[in-house]
Amino acid sequence: MKVTINGNVDQKEIDSIIAEEKERYAAKGKEIATIEILEVSAEELEVRTRAKSNIRRVRRITGYLSTVDRFNDAKQEELRDRVVHG
User: Fold this and answer.
1) Domain total for the chain?
2) What InterPro entries does the annotation carry (predicted)?
């Protein structure tokens, strides 16, 4: 888990926020990827928490759907040589 702090935030408060977020996400059966704590003002913090995602990118090369890690050298080269349109 990556934690980013922007501003002057007390370590005790940081630890408390992290523990709270871990508990909240664990109750949902999710795992935290990142927590960003931003000091908006002396009285206000903004906490942005993102869950880990199990989404995998699937590509189609020569008609076959697969994840990139399963491509042989020729298919990986074809992928690198592709031109992105749009």
Assistant:
1) 2
2) NrdD
pTM of this prediction exceeds 0.90:
no
69 and 83 share one domain: yes
Which amino acid, one-letter code, is at 74?
A
Beta strands in 17-82 (DSSP E): 32-41, 44-51, 58-61, 64-67
Look at residues 50, 53, 52, 72 and name the one whose alpha carbon lies nearest to residue 61.
72
For residues 33 and 70, state if they share a domain: no
Please enumerate in sequence order all residues whose Cβ is within 8 A of that of 39, keeping only pairs 6 or more positions apart, or say none. 6, 7, 8, 9, 45
Look up the domain containing 34 and give its range: 2-51
pLDDT band for 24, please (50, 70, 90 cuts): very high
pLDDT-derived band at 20 (thresholds 50, 70, 90) equals: very high
